[in-house]
């Protein structure tokens, strides 16, 4: 039904895309709250220094690659290359899952080194890393679920929907969680 | 993206009833469930928020009556209390645990459920699409979710009152360690778990709502409705939503860390604690002050989340009922903006006595006192709007004027409290209680009442009864001052808040009679609210019917919709807007609606 109504004001941003931007602002505030609490806490007593899991470097690479495939997917969608689009969003979702697994392996690595993340023996430095990373993983998981929904839509044969809005909204979000991880990674390594 | 397309894309609402027939039979088929329960119509969602908020207001008010009973009559016993509260009032005397639980729940419920969800949830939903000229919100579905998350939060909070160990009782600010350690008090056990779940659901509800309000105001205004033609209600609700969207996530961060401390043994907030009967805890290196920073980074904007919608509605109602343009429209927007910015920069004034660096404290004093500037601008503009106006003392108008009065009285004590040096003496005394109840609590309730009385005809197509409304107003305003004014004196004398029984303190014994007086008035004022409740529900079904589209002769767009607007608000095209919302008494005309084109002989506006 959307297509039957002419777009009177094309310069205006779609309300859903706009809402996504506001939501991203909201998520930024949440992580800003977390990382500033981290800084406050760091400047107080008993802060543990430890090495980040090496795998976080690789997971950073993976999520960067997934951003690229997401970009190509939305380009394919706009060019109506539906089979290419389906392949690309599948790869993106796969890379997202791989990222989640790698983060989990990162926690395993800390565990193996006997650095407690939670529990009575834990130090806030590690707990912060754990809580913030898990929180980011949940946001990536949300993105993966959104991609799976897009995927299901793309394979639905009864209704053909060529609206680019959902893809663009999900794409924006995907690049956002990517950028968020880059920020967190830089923060862990050089600021925090 | 036009308005029509958004509505069509997300609900099956037909706008084909352009021929003006608006009977419900002819309107597209809606079942009871889609119309009244899982409705995506912003007007119905607004009513859901309003009525849920009213239920909470009654419960929260009743709690205050119960703990005022303890404060006013510490030695008396009330056997009937035991029959309703059971073990929480053994021998007809509220136990200390119950007292703290009541105080905590009263605060949480009134701040979040009544004055956030009940106030901005109701009026943002109701007024934004109607006053900007939109068929519905940017995402009606998210809007529906926002209400149901709030409903879920309500159910969880309500259930916390019935668990064996009682609801959370560590104060509405939920400071650790009381909130982080289950062994710290009975209320810190299951009650706190439920409290935190409820608040998490509430944060989600606020975020979903806020996102929608912002997207709707910025993207879905009708043709000609530029930002500077918006009624001030919309500006206020817009800034409210911005504050909520930026500050609630930080509260959620604080809660997440709290959950980890509670349930997973981390030490974000806990350090070197010894609990009687449990022993020393292993937690080390945590900082309870950290929670206060995260909490008050939301907590202070929250005050304005509560107050700004009331300010916006009051501006509109004052102008309509003074039959004059609002004085200083741009200054009103500017001061809203200034308040929204400053709201984020003053949180540490809640923490002057936490051992905050005095230099940092002085910066926060300066920023806090700066809020007096936009606040004074607003007060000045309200008074000059009233000045020589042709005032119609409708119930809505009376409550709006009452709001201005309360805002002045409560705002002035804010200047006292904003000074870190004075705060050493006044912190956590009844002076603070008096200040924030007047300026934020009662004032915002007055804004809410003003809004309900004013927009009731649009909500239900009927009027509320004026006589009952006048009685309600006079008892409430007189009572509000009689309850909270004396508290200033108690606070100046150093009487601390949250104590269970003041009669055992030599310094505070002298206030026994005053406390009894306050409790008595609190009960009378609470009883007077039933005048309002009866009036509200009776008028929904039996009130005098509206016969005209525009009962208050107002300019804004909601009064151009049919008396009972369907989902989609306007029959046919959405009207185009040609002027700002405040052309009252212009060129000899009493009012000119926003939809009237500017005539050739019209003086410049």
Question: What does it look like?
Answer:
The complex is a heterodimer of chains A (192) and B (605). Chain A has 192 residues and is an all-alpha fold. Helix content of chain A is 74%, strand content 0%. In chain A, helix 1 (15-42) packs antiparallel against helix 4 (124-155) and helix 2 (55-78) packs antiparallel against helix 3. Chain B is mainly alpha-helical and 605 residues long. Helices cover 61% and strands 2% of the residues of chain B. Chain B has 17 helices and four strands. In chain B, strands 1-2 form a two-stranded antiparallel ribbon. In chain B, strands 3-4 form a two-stranded antiparallel ribbon. In chain B, strand 3 (584-586) and strand 4 (589-591) form a beta hairpin. In chain B, helix 5 runs antiparallel to helix 8 (232-263). Chain B starts with a helix and ends in a 14-residue tail after the last strand. Chain A binds chain B through residues 1-2, 5, 7-9, 12-16, 18-19, 22-23, 25-27, 29-34, 37, 40-41, 44-47, 118-124, 127-128, 131, 135, and chain B through 1-2, 4-6, 8-9, 138-139, 142, 207, 210-212, 214-216, 218-220, 245-250, 252-254, 256-257, 260, 264-268, 282-287, 290, 293-294, 297.
